[in-house]
Amino acid sequence: MHEMSIAESIVEIAEEAARREGAFRVRTVFAEIGELAGVEIEALRFCWEAVTREGPAAGAGLDITRIPGQAWCLHCSETIALCSSFAPCPRCGGDQLAITGGTEMRVREIEVE
Predict the structure, then answer these.
(1) Does the pLDDT of residue 7 top 70, yes or no?
(2) Region for 2 from its dihedrals, namely left if φ exceeds 0, alpha if ψ lies in -120 to 50, beta otherwise
(3) Cα–Cα dist 79/73, whole Å
(4) pLDDT tens digits for 64-102?
(5) What CA–CA distance (Å, rounded) separates 75 from 105?
(6) Strand order in the sheet with 61-67
(7) Domain covering 2-112 assigned CATH 3.10.450.50 in the classification
C-alpha cells in the first residue's frame, strides 16, 4: 500500500516545516492530489490516522483537494476531462491522449501552532 509511504512523506514535510518555523505542533495539512495520481483517498486517510498518532503532527488534520484529470486528445485536438488514465476521449472515442493534469501530489499549505 503506497498510501502509507505517501502519508509518512507528508508528515515529514509538515514536521520539517513546523521545525523551521519554530512551531510546536502541526494542526492541519492541506494537500492537492490529482484524480490520476493513483492514490486511494480513503486508504490515505486511514494511513494518515496511523502516522499522526505521536510527535508534532499528533492529531493533525488532513484536508485533501482533488485535482481533476485532464488530457489533450490528439484525434480531436481538444482538452478533455479524464477520470482514468486508460479511458478513451469522451468526445471522439480516440485513444491517443496526452495527460496534462491530474497526476500531481503536493502539500499546498501547513497550519502550525
Answers:
(1) yes
(2) alpha
(3) 6
(4) 999 999 999 999 999 999 999 899 999 999 999 999 999
(5) 28
(6) 61-67, 26-34, 105-112
(7) no
Placement of cell 480516440 in the chain: 94
Would you list the domain boundaries of the chain?
2-112
Quick one: residue 90, left, alpha or beta (phi over 0 = left, psi -120 to 50 = alpha)? alpha
Rounded distance, CA 78 to CA 16, Å?
Answer: 42
Query: pLDDT digit string (tens) for 19-77?
Result: 999 999 999 999 999 999 999 999 999 999 999 999 999 999 999 999 999 999 999 99
Direct distance between the N- and C-terminal alpha carbons of the chain, in angstroms, rounded to an integer: 31
What 3-state class would DSSP assign to 17?
Answer: helix
Could you tell me if 51 and 4 are in contact, meaning their C-beta atoms sit under 8 angstroms apart? Answer: yes
What's the rounded Cα separation, in Å, for the pair 25 and 21?
10
What is the reported pTM?
0.88
CA distance 76 to 78: 6
